[in-house]
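pls ignore typos typing on phone
adenosine-5'-diphosphate + seq
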Amino acid sequence: MRICCIGAGYVGGPTMTVIAHKCPDIRVDVVDINKARVDAWNSDNLPVFEPGLAEIVSEVRGRNLFFSNDVDAAIEAADIVFISVNTPTKTYGHGAGSASDLSFVESCARRIAEVSKSGKIVVEKSTMPVRTADVIKTILNTTGLGFQVLSNPEFLAEGTAIADLKSPDRVLIGGDEDSEEGRKAIATLSSVYERWIPAERIIKTNLWSSELSKLTANAFLAQRISSINAISALCEATGADVQQVAKAVGSDSRIGPKFLNASIGYGGSCFQKDLLNLVYLCEHFNLPEVAKYWRGVSDMNRYQKSRFSRQVVDCLFRNIMGKRLAIWGFAFKENTNDTRESPAIDICRDFLAENAKLAFYDPKVSEEQIRKDLCLTVDDPRVEFCKTPYEAAENAHAIILLTQWEEFKNLDYKRIKKAMMTPAWIFDGRNSLDHRLLLDLGFLLRGIGKGNLS
Ligand code: UDX
Ligand code: ADP
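k done
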């Protein structure tokens, strides 16, 4: 059996690496039109940072895992073709700001139709809006070669992708359950996963249930974060502590403890996009009340980010012009170099609008990426990029912790306090530091949903 994956991104790269690792008898070709990305996958400096990924890539690359730009050859030779390209939110025309841009998916489907000499199993891997399979099917059916389209959404979370892929809660495969060929295609894909995942964890559904389940799972997760973030605002007003509330609430086994960490807001490439997709779908099917309900989750996320940046400005005497702020962390979460939809982007934009000076430190995000996300020129005098969190904090009026990197927990805060301006503020946007210790050292401090700590 041969597998081809179109798109060597955050989803395609790690997913195919684990498939190749678990199935040594299957040749896996990951192809991409972006030459620099493919070159990076073939180098020691992988384009995606994920704990444990580099080790497995070095084991399987060149054995049964190959990265290349030769899209056509890989499609032609494959029995199963995964489509794992980007599906960003549309920025133009009908549905701009909420619908997904399917042009990359469509061009993949056209390419598959053009170069294939026999029917294949085509798998939607990237997050797709519901009924995207229809688009792919319609294009492939023009060939008369007998393709089968499956939906196999990815549930990996960045930062824990390898562990999630090796031991997923479930694998979802949607296909045409009503036809013999459809059932056969589902079974073929299932047999790949069954090599390392117990069969009872592989859920088989029709195409539309699979596509909608992915959107719904992400919407529910985002909703939990917006719910606890909404309560964090109330905690700050009333003197309750959001972590204590989350613990008490999450101890109810019907609710559960996960995804109840109040924060500066969720980020990442999936939550916002999938929520907007859901909203678009509801509006399309004339369900305005349902659309409004889910839009509220996204509105709360926006509110949480702006509430945080306003609080920083307010605490620094409502004036941050010319003041140095140490920005600790820029990735949307820890253990990834991904900044897509990172709450840090909106928050830093707010600070720049107030003409603050920003000194960045993130262990994995490049200077180039931060400049790109904030639309900064190379000679913008308001920003500085630092090699250590200590350097960023030097002469700073405040430390703004935006990503909960583990290394921030174990720094020499006495040394940091000495190097900062007075009063020395810390805004812990992830409630991840030892607040008692910082207060004892004389820092002024704000967490999320913690009321007045100092
Ligand atoms: C998410 C889903 O978890 C995954 O199943 C899906 O396939 C893709 O989208 P990802 O975006 O990679 O994964 O990371 P996730 O761990 O879900 O975090 C998303 C955002 O929510 C991050 O910005 C994170 O910091 C934030 N978050 C998460 C909170 O603010 N509080 C929490 O309690 C959990
Ligand atoms: P994800 O997080 O979904 O993996 P990424 O943006 O990280 O998204 O990766 C998607 C990849 O798909 C990019 O590297 C992009 O170059 C690639 N891609 C987009 N369209 C095509 C196409 N038609 N053929 C091959 N690769 C494509």
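The radius of gyration is 24 Å. Residues 5 and 30 are 5 Å apart (CA to CA). more later
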